[in-house]
Design brief:
The chain has helices at 2-29, 31-40, 44-71, 80-107, 112-137, 139-149, 154-178, 182-209, 218-242, 249-268. By secondary structure, the chain is mainly α. It has one domain (2-274): Up-down Bundle (Rhopdopsin 7-helix transmembrane proteins). The radius of gyration is 20 Å and the shape is globular.
Length: 275
């Protein structure tokens, strides 16, 4: 098991280094735009600092959860701690990308074709970010089937769960790829992702009610995702005005930090029935 842990540590380290190098190169390519936005557009420094603080907080949360996962005697990629840590890891890099995207958007120097491509990448990251939590949340389906329909064994359920995740990934990715305009993306996909977040919240609350999740507090996580939905709606409204007043991004980042912190508390705390 120690060899397995060492391999996963090296893999995670390698992936992190590769992503950081990739982002460094992209930031270098767009450095002229970044410099222009920071030096010429008022309020962007404050918004940038707020974004960087959020990125650091998310990275710490991810590291802490990975650490808890590695401390277990046996580790599996289906473990809740690993999937929670992966959620925050993807979210961390997603926010690094968002920071660049916001600079490019605020600059106003790029046409719709470039912005459409960047928006597609952004939504693909969002979809990937949903997958770890969706995988855990689908445990509620097994509970529902076992309680109300029929008995299903773990192997059958894992196959069903994997199929649902793959189907979701393929369908949403296909929608993103074929999208021909930014208007379509920002009109359709946010509602789809919010619907998934509502479903995930309900799943965690259902698991808490039926005492099916012992590694985390489903009640707090479910409520945190409901708060996350509210902050995402508020962020969308704020972001429209933030294009002309970048300092408003600080409010958006603060709201998201609160929601992410509530999730983190739910991930690291256990429900009463598991104590």
């Amino acid at each position: 098991m120690e060899i397995k842990k060492r391999r996963y540590k090296l893999l995670l380290l390698g992936v992190s280094i590769a992503l950081l190098v990739a982002f460094s190169l992209v930031y270098y390519l767009y450095w002229a735009t970044i410099s222009y936005v920071l030096s010429e557009i008022e309020g962007t420094w404050l918004a940038t600092i707020a974004s960087i603080i959020r990125i650091i907080i998310l990275a710490i949360m991810s590291f802490f959860l990975f650490r808890k996962w590695f401390k277990q005697e046996a580790i599996y990629t289906s473990d809740a701690y690993f999937l929670f840590a992966l959620f925050f890891m993807i979210l961390t890099y997603g926010k690094i990308y968002d920071l660049l995207y916001n600079w490019i958007l605020i600059s106003g120097n790029f046409g719709e074709t470039v912005l459409l491509y960047l928006q597609k990448v952004r939504f693909i990251i969002v979809v990937l970010n949903i997958l770890p939590i969706l995988y855990i949340g689908l445990e509620a389906i097994m509970t529902f089937i076992s309680v109300y329909i029929k008995v299903i064994n773990k192997k059958q359920f894992n196959k069903l769960r994997l199929r649902i995740v793959i189907i979701f990934l393929v369908i949403v990715s296909f929608i993103i790829v074929i999208a021909s305009s930014i208007t379509f993306l920002i009109s359709v996909l946010p509602f789809l992702t919010l619907a998934i977040f509502v479903m995930i919240a309900v799943m965690f609350l259902f698991m808490y009610k039926n005492k099916r999740l012992s590694q985390a507090n489903g009640l707090i996580i479910g409520l945190a995702f409901l708060v996350f939905i509210f902050t995402n709606i508020a962020r969308s409204i704020i972001s429209v005005r933030a294009l002309s007043e970048p300092s408003l991004f600080v409010i958006a980042e603060t709201l998201d930090i609160i929601a992410n912190f509530l999730m983190f508390i739910g991930f690291i705390s256990k429900p009463k029935y598991a104590r």
